[in-house]
Amino acid sequence: MPRIDAAISAGLLFLLTGFLALQPLSTDLYLASLPALRVHFDASVSSVQLTLSAFLAGFAISQLLAGPLSDRFGRRPVALGGAALYLAGSLLGAFAPSLAVLVAARIAQALGVCCTVVCARAIVRDLYEAEPGARVMSRALSWMGVVPIAGPVLGGLVQSAFGWRTNFLVLAAAGAAMLAATLRVLPETNRHRNPHATDLGALLRNYALVASSRNFWANALPITGSYGALFCFISASSFVLIELFGVSERAFGFTYALVTLGYLLGTIAVRRVLARLGLTRSIRLGATVGLVAGSSMALLAALGVQSLAAVLVPMCFVTAAHGFIQPCCQIGAIDPFPRHAGAATALMGFTMLTIAAFAGWLVGALHDGTVRPLAWAVAASACFGALSAWTLLRNETTRSAALTTTGSAT
Q1: Are residues 140 and 20 in contact, defined by beta-carbon separation less than 8 angstroms?
Q2: Among 64, 68, 159, 235, which residue carries the largest CB count within 10 Å?
Q3: What tens digit of pLDDT does each residue of 336-392 get?
Q4: How many other C-beta atoms lie within 10 A of the C-beta of residue 104?
Q5: CA–CA separation, 70 vs 54, rounded Å?
């Protein structure tokens, strides 16, 4: 049941969807531009991929502060500040004179979008218990799933017609729209604002409290492996599809959309089975699907199979698994911490994105003109996620008791 009398409004649901969507939009929209950026700035593959990894690293690190800020000052002011910063970073990226300035613009975007994503997760925690919250989150993520499908298509068309700078102007327009919507729609949902949440001592104690929770890591590590597999594909997709398989910039987005369609289907499927399976078994099912798909991709690469189908079909199942895992793990990791939801979601995001940023950089550094580095990285990440889900998650009865105990302690 919701923690407030009125159910979440349609306007607020769409706003939360927009908050969450800014992150994939910020990467997917300009993926088709990465080869063009390499030519424009006369840079290496790994240098251009730094615009992705730096974004993810900036996002990860800034969560450690954004979460506590929202615990202290409320979700609304932090979300407003984040939307404004994202708009400024997008405009800087559109007019960046060098790759270094573009990387700096990407970090500014990351700081801004971090605030909106952290607030979105914490708002759902403010309003809902664990399983209803997972259903609300999966509903928002289903709507958000349109972005990974439409974003690369739009980005490829814009890149083909106008070039990479226009893609950043599109991101600036999205930031402006979110800023206006936040001003109009978002209420304050944090009923337990903590004036000491950003004090260094309190901050360290809060993070230590979250980090000491087995339940937190049992949820944070499976989603880390799942997102790591997805980000490996995100970071390498344009070079593999465009340069290795000869997909055109215009067609890239449509090809990429076939893969991300799996994510949308995963978020829809989890809503249908969550009530029957519960959080734990739903996460394990998703992690197992990801492991089988990632391992199949690695096996095909090891056998020397280099075809679009050998990449796209397994990755479609990997993204579907992530859509299944993501809403369950996000809610499960922060549910025991009603008074530290911002800190919990920040630590989860920091862990997930730091490891994913490293994995994405590693795929770029190992780029050898084949699909092998991508396939092996996807398989390793999916294996990590599945092992975490099957070894750390407790069965539903035991876990429910643990949630109650941990929740009362906070």
Answers
A1: yes
A2: 235
A3: 887 777 678 778 888 888 888 788 778 877 777 788 999 999 999 999 999 999 998
A4: 17
A5: 23
Please, are residues 269 and 326 in contact by the beta-carbon 8 Å criterion? no
pLDDT at 124 over 80: no
DSSP letter, residue 282: H
Contact 109, 178 (CB under 8 A): no
> In the numeric block, which tokens belong to residue 70?
């929202």
What sign does the dihedral 278-281-285-286 (CA atoms) show?
Answer: positive
In this prediction, residue 153 has a pLDDT band, given cuts at 50, 70 and 90, of confident
Are 344 and 331 contacting, i.e. CB atoms less than 8 angstroms apart? no
Task: List, in order, residues 6 or more apart from 312 with CB less than 8 Å away.
Answer: 255, 258, 259
Q: What secondary structure does DSSP assign to 247-278, as a single string?
A: --HHHHHHHHHHHHHHHHHHHHHHHHHHHHHH
| Most confident listed range (7-11, 63-67, 101-105, 150-154) | 101-105
Backbone angles phi, psi at 160, to 5 degrees: -65, -35
Q: Which residues contact 71 (CB under 8 A, 6 or more apart)?
A: 122, 190, 193, 194, 197, 206, 339, 340, 341, 342, 343
Mean pLDDT taken over the chain: 83
CA–CA separation, 70 and 345 (whole Å)? 11
- Concatenated DSSP letters for 39-51? HHTT--HHHHHHH
Task: For residues 315 and 256, give the distance between their C-alpha atoms in angstroms, rounded to a whole number.
Answer: 10
Write the CB contacts of 178 (distance below 8 Å, at least 6 apart in sequence): 15, 18, 19, 22, 83, 86, 116
Report how far residue 218's alpha carbon sits from residue 280's, in angstroms, rounded to the nearest whole number.
Answer: 10
Sign of CA dihedral 116, 122, 128, 133: positive
